[in-house]
Amino acid sequence: MSTVLALLLAMVAGLGLGLFYFGGLWLTVQRLGRVHNPTLLFTLSFVVRTALAVTGMYLVMDGSWQRMLACLAGFIVVRQVMLSCLRPDRLPQTVCKGAKP
Prior knowledge:
Strand content: under 5%
Order of helices and strands: HHH
Structural class: mainly alpha
Number of domains: 1
């Protein structure tokens, strides 16, 4: 497999991991007010999300720091997009017209 293709696939994997991690965080925060024990929910969510994201990055990396950086770049891109979509009071909302405040 060519290096460029491997880095592109690593970045796509990072996008998926970021979507899982930050999407899960958003869902967890949305449910905190409706559960009996919010501390337990937040702690379990954090442990599961972090374990899966770190494991996924480790598997994608496969010993190559370049693939790790590409994966991390995809992860951070998702974070920035979600911030701009879900925080319209602080950032311009040009990309995400359907997001609710």
